[in-house]
Specification:
Keywords: Methyltransferase, Transferase. It comes from Streptomyces althioticus subsp. attaecolombicae. It holds the Pfam family Methyltransf_25. This is Class I SAM-dependent methyltransferase. The chain has about 260 residues and is α/β, with parallel strands linked by helices. It has one domain: Rossmann fold (3-Layer(aba) Sandwich), CATH 3.40.50.150. The protein contains eight helices and seven strands. It has helices at about 10-15, 20-25, 40-55, 70-75, 90-95, 140-150, 170-185, 200-210; strands spanning about 60, 80-85, 105-110, 120-125, 150-160, 210-220, 230-240. The longest helix has 19 residues, at about 170-185. The chain is globular, with a radius of gyration of 18 Å.
Length: about 260
Amino acid sequence: MFSPEGPRLSELAVQALSSVERGYDLLAPKFDHTPFRTPDSVLDATVAALLESGPYGTGLDLCCGTGAGVDVLRQVCRDGVTGVDFSTGMLEVARARRRPEGPDVSWVRADARALPFGPEFDLVVSFGALGHFLPSELPGLFAQVHKVLRPGGRFVLPVVAPPRPGSPAQAMLLGFDAVMRVRNAVWRPPFVMYYRAVRFGGLWRGLERGGFRVTFWALPEFGRRRDGSPRVRLLVAEKTEKAEKAEAKGEGRPTDPD
């Protein structure tokens, strides 16, 4: 799971007993060598899908970490790109990474729940960040994304199909969440990181209530499950001026697997 360049067990223990912000500050130098980073295969498939639907103007990587999502945006956006995160350590690593030619990048330290921007972005992406928000915080987070998008702008994030009930993968995810809940019940400050707190169906319904028209694009690179549903989708939430219901057809309205 971890490469030799990744964090030692003792380092992970210290990080897990810290706040989310402090934990990621400590993890930042070795984050790209952990399984917490979004795989390159998902990033590349996202680029391919966005190139077909673009080009886009300005882009924002929400909870950018070490900047993998910023590299996605620089391939699909013609104008400026911004990465925002509340971890100083992550932003320092992101700034230090060498990048090929592309739009200018701005790095901003801010809490995603209080973004310091107006409606100035055509595309917002996020990779693996929603597990750091409690379900009660998501409406506010979606309101912030809606606020910073221009009309017709899109909020895009990959969504992996949940593992089969009773499978080892599901047991591992549920076990991880259980450990984190026990940790947060007995230790302060809390470290919010859950894999199953945000359910697939609740995610798209919350976005629709927040003023987005939600569709799902299958990523064919990852194939389909036995029931024919995609293994990995892009959730694409388009900003509307009023909350509207997405039409129940095609990939735009999948069956809620939860």
